[in-house]
Amino acid sequence: MPKLIIVSNRLPITVSKVGNKISYSSSSGGLATALASVDNIEEKLWIGWPGIAEDDLTNQEKKEITKELLKQNCVPVFLSQKQIKEFYLGFCNGTLWPLFHYFSLYTEYEDRYWQAYKKINQQFCNVTIKYANKDSLIWVHDYHLMLLPQELRKKLKEQKIGFFLHVPFPSFEIFRLLPYRKELLNGLLGADLLGFHVYDYARHFLSSTSRLLGYEHKLGTILVKDHKVKVDAFPIGIDYEKFANASKSKLVKNEIKALRAITKKQKVIVSIDRLDYTKGILQRLKAYQMFLQKNPQYHKKIMMIILAVPSRTGVNAYADLRKNVEQLISRINGAYSSVNWTPVHYLFRSVPFEQVTAFYSVGDIALITPLRDGMNLVAKEFIASKQKSPGVLILSEMAGAASELSEAITVNPNDKVDIASAIKQAIEMPSAEQKSRVKHMQKRISQYDVSSWAYDFMRALKEIKSNKKNVPVMIGPKEINKTKKDFQDAKNKLLFLDYDGTLVEFSSNPGAVSPSKDLVNLISKLAKIKGCEAVIVSGRDKYTLEKWLGHLPISLIAEHGAWIKSKSKKRWSTELTKKQDWKKALQPILAYFTNRTPNSFVEEKEFSLVWHYRKVEKSLADVRTQELKEELNYLTNTLNLGVYEGSKILEIKPTNINKGDAVRKLLKDKSSDFVMGIGDDYTDEDLFLALPKKAISIKVGIGNSCAKYRVRGVDQVLSLLEKLAN
Ligand code: GDG
After folding, report:
1. How does pLDDT run across 50-72, given as a tens digit for each residue?
2. Atom 30 of ligand 1 has which residue's CA nearest to it?
3. 356 and 401 share a domain?
């Protein structure tokens, strides 16, 4: 069984010391709960900081802690006071946190923070490699450890490494502000799988890697030198059952009773977050203030409970925020409260789970208005808790959760008028409507809960094909002679040949690539050899292939596998449905780009759309293809379409069309004792992968490939085929 190693800044167990006594408590937080659910599938080890500065510990105590934690499958990475200041409070929470949440003015650029960040990531790497074995799966978490995947990759070649970012990945315009932007991207690209909460963040990451490092992606996969990185969205869920059933516990029931005694018949707005400037607490309070001002009829009929959990108290911005929040609460209470009514109840501390769920229970409205939030679990927890009485969720558009919780009242967190009127709408919403909205959201979040999230990520990581370096060797005279002998000795021979770039050179003039007489003769000679079947496997449409080669006794595969004409059946067939509605949606975008890009044009194939730019001036073509790719990747993501980059083309086609499946179909029912495949571009990689193990696969030209051999160009392909034919 593979060993799962989780690496995160904090361990799920917090160590503390009072006097000489060391104690252990479980760290609260979604991550620990989330990963507890993968317990039954893996042997698990967790590496992270135990929450105490090593300056406060003797060597003997460190040893004891290590021993004790190991019993619970945890390994500590000890950090000194100075490291906590420069790494955790400095680079993580003074640089990355504000910038990734679009607070560029709060972002501190201190070289010593960056140096500490690099050093600590290295420290985490040293500990991790000590515990990794050759089958380990390594899952690194969050912005504290963005350099770790690459550090690990330098030492661990075989192991699969995953990384999940719990905060937003900002747009390129924001990310580019970081002086260490390239190092951080390269750090992440050491992973095999990179996960984000929502596709928008993944898209921002892909755009930054393309613009800063020049790496392009195909369907979210980036090829980095000898290694592939898959980028995808995995929206984190909650432990749904835990929140749905919480109010059944006696402790929670008691908490609810105590709260009801205070809230009485008032409508209760709950607001729960860490006290963080990204959570929009000040803006939310200002909106509530406006609501009270505009709606005196609701005075004494409504109250707000604000639970603000202390967070990163060592960072200046947080201390300022606390002061401002508390001043504003005083102003609101000072202006509106009476002897028997306090409009805002404020708690600045962390409370037990039972109390949090009691707040969810008595809350009629959850007001969750972060200015930016990776996901926001509180929103999902509130909805899960609403099993008996309904409630209304007011949710910021800027939270990742907004894309899943579409029945919430969504607001712009900077627009206090919008929030104030949302509060009114929530108070006045009929109970039936509340119920129906909550039900829809509950259905969604119960189906994709935290276990599904962890399970899905792990499955995607395990499914990643081995990233071993695969560089085909140049085919030499010895291999060519052996190939010829094997070909002659075999009874049933199959040759899969790509067309453009393999049998003919690319040309900027599409007419010039029709097969020459010599080429037609060569193919026909091969086809006439006893027991030999030649198959042309091309991205071109079936009409063109038919016109050029349809008269030969060979098989043809057109449009990357969408159409097949086998030698025996002699007619074209496809398993795809002719209805390709997606084309209608994308045509206007392609037309728009074509209009703005002189000399480009759109080709419509039966199962794909191709944007050609071979005659476009290079610098304009570079810009336009980049823009178009971004536009298309965004749109095609939900339609199961892929955007493929060929030679001076962008092709959009359903992801289930590929040369590999078509080749597999032809290979089925055939017992060939000689199989060869030759191709030059990425679409031929599917062809190579579909060939039997013993087959000879040849990549034409430079670049990585899973083919066994390589030839320099078309000339060499033709001379090899001549050898076989004669
Ligand atoms: C980061 C990202 C992303 C809150 N107060 C108490 C308490 N809580 C619990 C809540 C919830 C969790 O803390 C807060 O999670 P959020 O998702 O709302 O926010 P962040 O802490 O900023 O988390 C965020 C998340 O990572 C996961 O990927 O969603 O976007 O910023 O579970 O219930 N729990 C207890 N006492 C409290 O006083 N026991």
Report:
1. 999 999 899 999 999 999 999 99
2. 374
3. yes
